[in-house]
Specification:
Length: about 70
């Protein structure tokens, strides 16, 4: 998973953002479960996915506020 840039987020539609948010949420759940059962090689992946989710939620909220005006 490549890091999303601000320009990339601006080009995605709301449905694409929601789909990526759902996919990243599933990915985070799997990472946490796998890490609890058997320690993963790179535990910083969990932090990375959490931050990606935060970026997606921030962009969705920004668009929600713009459309409300």
């Amino acid at each position: 998973m490549a890091k999303l840039k601000r320009e990339d987020l601006n080009q995605l539609s709301i449905e694409d953002l929601k789909q990526r948010l759902h996919d990243d949420g599933d990915h985070l759940t799997k990472l946490r479960f796998n890490h609890a059962v058997n320690p993963i090689d790179n535990p910083s992946q969990i932090r990375y996915v959490r931050r990606e989710i935060a970026r997606l939620k921030t962009e969705l909220r920004k668009r929600e506020l713009v459309s409300a005006k």
